[in-house]
Amino acid sequence: MDKYLNKILVGDCVARMKELPDGSVDAVFADAPYNLQLGAKTLYRPEDQTAARAVRDSWDNFESNAEYDDFTRAWLTECRRVLKHDGAMWVIGSYHNIFRLGYLMQELGFWILNDIIWVKTNPMPNFRGTRFTNAHETLIWATPAKTGKYTFNYETMKKLNGGKQMRSNWAMNICLGEERVKDANGKSLHTTQKPLDMLRRVILASTKPGDIILDPFMGSGTTAAAAVELGRNFIGFDSDASYVAAATARINAVAPADLAAVEIALPKRLEAKVSFAELLEGGLLYPGQTLVSPRGERVMITRDGLLTHGLHGKASIHVMAARLQQSVSFNGWDYWSAEKRDGSLVHIDELRKYVRDIKRDMKKAA
User: Fold this and answer.
1) Residue 78 has pLDDT above 60, yes or no
2) 232 and 278 share a domain?
3) Is the pLDDT of residue 93 over 80?
């Protein structure tokens, strides 16, 4: 693997992937040809009649949908072979090809986890006014098999989203200005360069530091640049030597990021379990103490570790929170604060974290 690791190599992606061992990469990001079928027709901006750049590169030309499907099936098959059983498979496309990609992925045995809508905040307008402005593309996130224990860094995504659960609609600019990789003439090197922020998010969501990420259509090198920045390894292929040269120069200039500032290493589901009863047993809470909700609702802790409310009876911290909000379920750890003897409040999840840290330290000492 050393001859491929952290390198971008020239060649047909299917042939190149055949050189890699089975189950040798942790993730794949594939920005494959879209099969746009634009032909030679030129679009002009109505305000000044300048030509709008469109994808007419030879690598996006296919004689038929059948030819495109054969090509897609071939590279997807190799991606599935080289992916680890618990690896991440990402593809991106527009309405021209994403439905074909999804269908073929399912036919080959991939298990689809999410589709992500990239909402373009600065989309190319529909110059002729004959259709809606095409303001989004779709990413598919999948695993090679339904039984794979895939990586999802939920807490990191929540942190990036301002403390709220990350949704499947990602609003990002298309590449413009300085982010665009330029050719020798100062023009955009690649017609479909993706924003670096997108690859950062993909990598942070579904890989771990040190993982190997394969991009079979490396193009301008965005996947590799994000991988280097975020402490991951990469393997890249592209059939165009000029793309490979420019992408290699690009990644040689990338500086690693401070991962501690963006990643949360341990998902909550893998942290030590702490029950509400343990807070009572440890003296951090006590029977008869009042818990207060964000809306000022007050309940009392009973001797058996439940909460009591005049209108809603007795229930656990989770059920009581749900009853007060008229919800089917709710995480009580996020809802209640304990009223201390001096009248101040402390969030019960902070008390849980305190006990969890003690458990972790005892485990290390053992």
Assistant:
1) yes
2) no
3) yes
